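REVIEWER CHECKLIST
Item 1: Sequence provided? yes
Item 2: Single chain? yes
Item 3: Sequence as submitted:
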Amino acid sequence: MWYYNGKEVSDEDIQEYVGFVYRITNLTNQKSYIGKKLFKSTRTKTIKGKRKKVKSDSGWRDYYGSNAVLKQDVDSLGPDNFRREILHFCKSKGTANYLEMREQIDRRVLESDQWYNDWIMVKVHRSHLKL
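Item 4: Structure as written out by the authors:
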């Protein structure tokens, strides 16, 4: 389950948002990961001989980050040993990119072994932001 401000997140809570910035914490050693996730993913599908973009659920409810070491720890320790919290709901992909990077920089995730994050990479223009 995902939490926002201490409360469980439901489908009603995400209606107006594109994605979110999150923190996943390993409860056995307090090591954390900062990332972002979109609620919908866009895929190209061939329908009646024509290629169309189709949006589908991104699997965010069961998501535990993209970091290989974090995913390995979730597999070995079990999901019950991890807390998943949403830090920011985002109204655009650009806003999610920016806020993820800002959280990573503010928390200095590359400067300590208390973070799973290995790298920060983002390209955001002012016009991408919808705060």
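Item 5: Key structural point noted by reviewer: The mean pLDDT is 92.
Item 6: Recommendation: ____
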